[in-house]
Specification:
single chain; alpha/beta; Rossmann fold; GMP Synthetase, Chain A, domain 3; 2 domains; 3-stranded mixed β-sheet; 35% helix; 22% strand; globular
């Protein structure tokens, strides 16, 4: 008898920079979530879809669960915590350390309030020895009763197949929500905006804090086809930031644009003509109107 097709929703949680987006991109096999070594890289719930003969897993990559500092932070925390109750499985991703800090303790407290099965993925398996890993597993067992603990390396793809198999074990037989070739429900404009933001975060390193957003002003394919014209704006909070983003004689902005364009062309499978402007909007992270304007929808989760 053929196994029944299973389907369900899995949310990835974990402190910033534990490799949630890298893991998701590896499993899906295409770049969807932006990755950066800075916290608060993922702002919206990104739905990515994994389908094979066993079934379909819809991954929700939530913003990190942390204590909020401003309205944007509150919105991100609300999204993350509400998601825990709505999904079939919670996949908590941690780094291989026995030190369990306040951030992890806070996540364990939130998980104690829900009945959803929780699987722990200890990422960056390639960076520790086996005995160290056993100590990490032991430390985490003490703070929460996990259904399963699976060590993986998102970067190298180690044990990720076993992790997917484990997730399927906790899903019920169900319908196929998306076509086989669907890998995300994010609109293309949003992914394009995120690609620009990723390049800006990476290239600007520590010079610019997280006070940047990207809006796509227009995205049109030319009548003759073969070229997509994209106009985008990087929004920052201070005039001094604007100067750094543009760089000497526009060099930094050019670099951000050319790196983003290469990935856009791979994603959209078309030549891209990208124009980027930089604007200053002071305190946009504390304005409901501006947060909404840059693609975040606080009203959905209040």
């Amino acid at each position: 008898m053929k196994n029944e097709f299973k389907s369900g929703f899995v949310t990835l949680i974990g402190r910033p920079n534990v490799g949630k987006s890298t893991l998701m991109n590896h499993i899906i096999g295409q770049k969807i979530a932006i990755t950066s070594s800075k916290p608060q890289t993922t702002r919206n719930r990104i739905q990515t879809v994994f389908t094979d003969e066993r079934g379909q897993i819809i991954f929700l990559d939530t913003p990190g669960i942390h204590k909020a500092k401003n309205k944007l932070g509150e919105y991100m925390v609300n999204v993350a915590e509400r998601t825990l109750k709505e999904v079939d499985v919670v996949l908590w991703i941690v780094e291989p350390t026995t030190f369990i800090g306040a951030g992890e303790q806070h996540i364990a407290e939130q998980l104690a309030k829900v009945n959803t099965p929780v699987i722990l993925a200890i990422n960056k398996l390639d960076t520790v020895k086996k005995e160290e890993l056993l100590a990490v597993i032991d430390a985490y067992r003490k703070i929460y009763d996990f259904k399963e603990i699976v060590p993986v390396s998102a970067l190298k793809g180690e044990n990720t197949d076993h992790l997917v198999e484990t997730l399927f074990e906790y899903l019920e037989p169900g319908p196929q929500f998306y076509d086989e070739d669907t890998i995300t429900d994010q609109p293309e404009r949003q992914i394009v905006a995120e690609l620009i933001r990723e390049k800006a975060l990476r290239l600007l390193k520590d010079e610019i804090p997280h006070g940047i957003a990207v809006s796509i002003d227009s995205m049109k394919e030319r009548k003759k086809g073969n070229i997509m014209d994209i106009d985008a704006t990087i929004v920052c909070e201070r005039d001094s930031h604007k100067g750094i983003i543009i760089g000497k004689q526009g060099a930094m902005l050019k670099k951000i644009g050319s790196q983003a364009r290469v990935e856009m062309e791979n994603l959209l499978d078309i030549k891209v003509n990208l124009q980027i402007w930089v604007k200053v909007k002071k305190d946009w992270r504390d304005s409901d109107f501006l947060i909404k304007n840059y693609g975040y929808q606080p009203t959905d989760y209040e």
